[in-house]
Design goal:
189 residues; four-stranded antiparallel sheet; two-stranded antiparallel sheet; 10 strands; binds zinc ion
């Protein structure tokens, strides 16, 4: 179980989430896509997170050519010159269900970062910030492509909350809900 915090101000960005062993396969991002909003089903189910070991998001660099087209994972971001570029974005970003993080983040506009049809493509850099202003998350939610929110591994830190350490940190007799970090209880108010 892990809580993600803003590395700049220490605000808790998520609840206590269990890890998935890997980022789930999507295969077909249009399966289950919402007809009204155009959003795909979230890659990661509600209440979980997964670490993406591969580079994700902006910037993109020319792909080495020639090569066989890789099997589509269903998680490709819509962008111009698609197929000719590879992500040179950060590895090991945390992928979460947008609803687990969005209420604690603020959209901001910078260049093309909200470009998309029904939502941001996620291919133009971070588009969500902590309340302190740190631009630490990118949300992809266009009607072509996946629906996933990535936390920048440099701008957040993860604090494992194993049952053993939780029990050790909590004074005896204090209920779990009263011993949570101050930032998190503040954010819930
Ligand atoms: Zn912050």
């Amino acid at each position: 179980m892990t809580v993600f915090y803003c590395a700049k101000c220490g605000t808790a960005l998520t609840g206590d989430l269990p890890a998935l062993p890997s980022v789930p396969d999507i295969d077909d991002p249009d399966a289950g896509r919402d007809e009204k909003t155009g959003q795909a089903r979230s890659t990661v189910p509600r209440g979980h997170y997964a670490i993406d070991p591969d580079p994700w998001g902006a910037p993109f660099v020319p792909a080495p050519a020639p090569r066989q087209p890789a099997r589509a994972s269903g998680r490709e971001l819509l962008r111009s010159a698609s197929g000719a570029t590879d992500s040179a974005g950060p590895r090991n970003s945390a992928v979460l269900h947008p609803d687990d993080v969005m209420p604690r983040l603020t959209p901001f506009t910078c260049g093309d970062n909200w470009t998309g049809c029904c939502g941001p493509t996620g291919a133009h850099g971070p588009n969500l910030a902590c309340t302190c202003g740190s631009r630490l998350a990118t949300w992809a939610a266009d009607c072509l492509g996946p629906n996933e929110l990535h936390l920048d591994p440099v701008r957040v830190y993860a604090w494992p909350q194993s049952e053993a350490t939780e029990a050790a940190q909590r004074p005896i007799g204090v209920p779990e809900e009263l011993s949570r970090p101050v930032e998190e209880s503040r954010k819930r108010e």
